[in-house]
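User: I'm putting together a teaching handout on how multi-component assemblies are represented. Below are the sequence lines for each component of a complex, exactly as they appear in our records. Could you produce the 3D structure of the whole assembly as structure tokens, so the students can see both representations side by side? Please keep the chain order the same as the input.
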Amino acid sequence: MAVTTVSSADPPATRRSPGRAARRGHRGHPLAGFLFVVPFMVLFIAMILVPLGYAAYLSLFESKLIGGTSFVGLKNFAEALTDPAFLGGVGRMALFLVIQVPIMLGIALFLALAIDSGRTRAARSARLLAFMPYAVPGVVATLMWGYLYGPDFGPITQAFEALGLQPPDLLGESSILGSMMNIVTWEYVGYNMIIMYAALRAIPTELYEAAAIDGASRIRIALSIKIPAIKPAIMLTVIFSVIGTFQLFNEPALLDAIAPVVITNGFTPNFYAYNVAFVNQDVNYAAAIAFLLGLVIAIMSYVVQLSSQRAERKVRR
Amino acid sequence: MTATMSAGGTASAAGLHKPRPSRHRRGRDRSAPLSIIVWALALYFLLPLVWLAIASTKNTGDLFSTFGFWFGDSFALWDNIQSVFGYKDGIFGRWALNTLLYAGVSAVGASFLATMAGYGFAKYRFFGSNAMFSIVLGAIMIPLTALALPTYLLFSSAGLTNTVWAIIVPSLVSPFGVFLMRVYAADSVPDSLLEAARVDGAGELRTFFQVAFRLMVPGFITVLLFALVATWNNYFLPLIMLNSSDLYPLTVGLAQMQSAGTSGGGGEVLFSTVITGSFISIVPLIVAFLFLQRYWQSGLSAGSVKG
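Assistant: Of course. Below is the structure of the complete assembly, with chains in the same order as your input.
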């Protein structure tokens, strides 16, 4: 739904070049513009639209060892919507969304505000350190945290044992989701922080200097001037997080090797789609799951967008 | 909002990031509690990487017997590096080269295509341009991994899986890159300059390469970095597309090494080898990040402030 935000941001950019229509005669040939866009569009169609169409097509069929492939309409979708493994994965990701995403974005916003305020020592280095995990591939981050959590030589276990305490089982059934949330938080706080920080830097200082002269506290300035001013950037991070959460794959796939019992093959919807396609070899059903997953994400992003617009309207009233 | 947007947009477009004078003045009143919290968080981000660096200097014995955040009795980094590159007749080096190839070609290609398309959308009006741009924008919402499976099915029906192209071609498409470059082109390339070039008789292509592209280089680099990280870190797509380990990138190779080690594959893979391999694989990207970090911010402010 960046679509709506973007188009609302578009008019000012157009307005900035007055007399555009009058100069149209001097503009480049329309065909040239088309040719600039064509290479990308060809690949875009071939790599995004065609696969989507093909998956939609496949999802309407069923193949059996005996009887071959037959058209079954929406049966795969109906099956997925009552499949406890798929629904369990979606539920787990919904939990992720309401717990991990607010924590991650809260830390990111706090760091962005703290570093932008100029009241933190060595803020530049802190910013770089927070951003560094984004450079670490998800695979390596998960491997690394898997060792850190692990009972063999994980420093967390070591520390507990050194103090004579019972080390926590971070890879157990009740804790694995929390451990995964920590990995994702570690990976993406910095990325979200940079988006928010870049937006904060773009706020004209006059906007809050006047408030400071009027005696507004720094916290008050942050809450009622800075945060509202970077709302589009915050919304962008929320929507990116919704998309990211529902397509979690690396973390369950890699933790599966060290905690095979607790990572079920439907732990996340995407991991489930993978297992259905490659372990169960049921391509048609996997296509339906991938499609439904995309739909869930689109709906969630839309709900987020809509609720933020509604909240904004309320504030304006 | 309009004021904010144009301020952010033009400042970043011109690549100007002068520190605001007022920040210097306010720089003097540091807050100790704030600094402590920020640095505690910074440590949270740093410590796991420190552990990884220290662990890659230990042999397997030390790994188990000594404390994680301090060095072991022996300094085995060189031995570990040797065993990483010696693993299965040096396949790790092969994976590294594959990663470099996939990430390099995809990133350069994707950002070039995005720059051209962004420029085309920003500076020309042609039949269907608005409709096309709307579809591209909508595609930003499509989750990449949810798309990987359909892409695999398509490639598989065309018999193109397990090739270099199965990784590179899907990675060439970056809808977010097109969006970013359209915003960037609109801000950084003045129409008057293009007109002047045309009046001087330069063709459209020449105008693009010799005038417009130069102005868009900072945006180009931002998209390049995004695409580079995305391909370098990609795991799902190569995992499903590739069968032969000769074609694996580092991510898939490392994951395979780890699972071979934990599933008790005859103790062939030692923990220290996986750990050192992981450490080696992140060093280049972290170095690139530290050197190119200002592009992240400038590019993102163009994208996020407007988005």
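A couple of points students might notice: Chain B touches chain A through 130 residues (CB under 8 Å). Confidence is low (pLDDT under 50) at residues 1-27 of chain B.
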